[in-house]
Amino acid sequence: MPDVTPPTAAPSGTQTLLRGLAVIHAVAAGARDLKAIGQQLGTTRSTTHRLASALVDERYLRLLPQVGYVLGPRLIELGFQAREEVPLVVLAEPWLAQLSAHTGDTIHLAVRDGDEVLYLHKTPGRHGPEMRSRVGHRMPLLRTGIGKALLLDAGPAEWQRLFEACAGLPTALAGHAAPNWDAFEPRMRDYVAGQYAFDLEDNEPSIRCVAAPVRDASRRIVAAISVASTVPYMPMEKMAALLPQVQAAARAISAELGAAVCSNGAAGPQSE
Predict the structure, then answer these.
(1) How sure is the predictor about 133, in pLDDT bands with cuts at 50, 70 and 90?
(2) Under DSSP, is residue 158 helix (H, G, I), strand (E, B) or coil?
(3) Residue 242: how many CA atoms within 13 Å on its side-chain side?
């Protein structure tokens, strides 16, 4: 008897795996009972129950009284394991390389370490003098655009504390920093509204940068990226033009870390 199986049909084991994954996606999207899950998958109640029960047994799903199916602890464990196994720099590098190739400017990736920026990656620019930043270098948070991007969720009280701490630094380091808190706070509020930050010669004279935050699956800011250059190569018009590209790269890195992307394309801030 000839084989009448369609050539595109998936092996039965593969089909079961894909259906199991589809159940997880359905629950993640808000399906809480067998009927809702089955409607999304197009499966019978008995098949849906079999798949969901197996996932509960393996801790990929939970079945809670008065709630229904929710994602299980095994997914949390795997999520943390996946995050730890792939370093941030490795995940970010393709997007940073893309920015470097497109702009020719200096590219940074940094994280917050206490009250300082810690640089994890730097791609030197192809024009203008070399900046003093380097991998492992630290700077006060509010003296850099990338540091301000790391602080977008921090709030005015934290901003002011860090601002006052920076006010005691030597003038040579302060550069062109905002002259007073009343001028600085509205600037930070504008950055929060736009989910970006600028360095307008706040750290080094003649250096400007465009920065954006990177978020993880919890929607917390865990890093930031920036594109920087000297004033002749970074006029305000170019900064405005670069902003969508920097934000797009930051969103792409955020997605690699599990951050959900909002309908407007942004990785939204953490809900209070």
Answers:
(1) confident
(2) helix
(3) 30
Pair (77, 103) in one structural domain: no
The string of pLDDT tens digits covering residues 212-264 is: 999 998 899 999 999 999 899 999 999 999 999 999 999 999 998 888 765 44
- pLDDT at position 263, please? 40
Comparing C-alpha atoms, which of 66, 74, 76 is closest to residue 32? 66
List, in order, residues 6 or more apart from 250 with CB less than 8 Å away.
212, 213, 214, 224, 225, 267
Answer yes or no: are the C-beta atoms of 111 and 120 closer than 8 Å.
yes
Which residue type, as a one-letter code, is found at position 32?
R
Query: Model-level pTM?
Result: 0.67
Give the HSE-up count for residue 271: Cα atoms under 13 Å, Cβ half-sphere: 2
CA nearest to 244, candidates 212, 214, 198: 212
CATH of the domain at 58: 1.10.10.10
Assigned domain for 5 exists: no
The pLDDT > 90 percentage for the chain reads 56
The predicted-structure confidence for 107-116, as pLDDT tens digits, reads as follows 999 999 999 9
Gap between the Cα atoms of 167 and 162, Å rounded: 9
The C-alpha angle 183, 160, 229, rounded to 5 degrees, equals 60
Domain co-membership, 45 together with 161: no
Amino acid 83: pLDDT: 62
Q: Is 163 exposed, middle or buried, given 0-12, 13-18 or 19+ CB atoms closer than 10 A? A: buried
At 80, which amino acid appears? F
In this structure, how many other beta carbons lie within 10 angstroms of the beta carbon of residue 229? 26
Tokens of 270: 């953490």
What Cα–Cα distance (Å) separates residue 118 from each residue in 150, 160, 210, 223, 230?
A: 11, 20, 17, 10, 21
